[in-house]
Amino acid sequence: MSVVIVGGNERMERQYKDICAEYRCWAKILTKMTGSFQNKIGSPDLLVLFTSTMSHKMVRSALSEIKGLDTVIARSHSSSMTALKGILEEHTAGGA
Known about the structure:
Shape: globular
Strand content: 15-25%
Largest sheet: 4 strands, parallel
Distance between the termini: 14 Å
Number of helices: 4
CATH class: Alpha Beta
Radius of gyration: 12 Å
CATH architecture: 3-Layer(aba) Sandwich
Number of domains: 1
Helix content: 25-40%
Number of strands: 4
Structural class: alpha/beta
């Protein structure tokens, strides 16, 4: 399963990837909005939006990028490891 995480803390990128690996997911983490942000999302199975650490423009860009795809969207106000684990528990077959 491919997961794209938008928002979150830069310092926790490695932890986000490790948690996703525990749930047998391939993860791409986008913590900042760069010039080519829209071209980086692709077509993931799950889009995780950590809304407390991202701008409204970033949310709109991410949602418009996956419009028309069969991507599951999960929003969380918290960008903690526990929040990510809860989202992955809900949307995957479970951890290792």
